[in-house]
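Final report, closing paragraph on structural work. Over the funding period we assembled a curated collection of sequence-structure pairs, and we close with a single example.
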Amino acid sequence: MYVAVKGGERAIRNAHKLLARRRRGDTSVPALTLEQIAGQLAHSVARVMGEGSLYDEMLAALAIKQARGDLIEAAFLMRAYRTTLPRFGYSRPIDTARMLVERRVSATYKDLPGGQVLGPTFDYSHRLLDFALAAEDDGSDLPVDTAPVTDEPMPRVTDLLGEEGLIEPDPVTDEDAPVGDLTREPLSFPADRDLRLQNLARGDEGFLLALAYSTQRGYGRTHPFAGEIRYGEVEVEFFAEELGFAVTLGTIKVTECQMVNQFQGTAKAAPTFTRGYGLVFGQVERKAMSMAMVDRSMRWQELGEEQTAPAQDVEFVLSHSDNIQATGFVEHLKLPHYVDFQAELDLVRRMRAEWFDRRKADATDGNQGRKAAE
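Its predicted structure, as stored:
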């Protein structure tokens, strides 16, 4: 049991005051506003919303400001706040086919119905520091050539493949079957795909990226094609029992990724492509792509494959992808462990003493043996 250190409460209060002062920084420089963070650090805001399991750009901006830019700490703040909110029910599944697309690219087809829409992306930029930004010339006044709006539909690439039977069909699920909810029930194993996707959606981006990369390097069975990555706004609907129909609550921005993976087939089923799926808040394409690749890897059992890599181990992936839990286990090492360490210290001292005593006894026996031999 930890014991309070004399003066500990006062020291903690002073630590909080110092943290607030360091968070503010140079007071001669205007403080960051939440609008600035939400508008100009959109990728960070999206990551915090996703890993914090709460879609609210201004709250995410507040969490980032409070956490001094520590995105894991900000996600922790979001999850903690989320637990205080009332729950009215579950929204309907969003329909990404009706997305107001801002960006849509495919690595599998050059010419697609609806076309490729590059949108805002770093993909085609030079990785060179832009010192004009330091001079407050942010380029926001530069003209943008926008393509004319098209009414042509944008079917998913997987739908196009599905029309020819070239990709496994979407899983058929019972709409009345209960869906797991990691925000209300702790994760347990074996975990079905609904729980796996939830876990990945709020998992740490860096961890999932590393796992996805490992599958490409041979530690798993994915060498995928990016079937489609689309980013834009979708409506969120809630079925109101008293009204008898669904009402629109608002819109959210999401990134959806469909990965097209290797062939699979059996004596009873013709070879087809398989799929991996990723969906995250905001424009976080790297996370969505990584999620889709890891999702595919964890489906090894239902696809009749052999488990050979860490990314295929469902319990390993899901138990270690949550950076909030990982943070707790790692950072708890900063708490006092005085009693435990003193016990270990005493044990090591006794073991060393016994070790030296044995060495001394062995040396004495050896000397006596030599004298006897002489």
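The chain has a mean pLDDT of 86. The CA atoms of residues 43 and 136 lie 20 Å apart. We thank the funder for supporting this effort.
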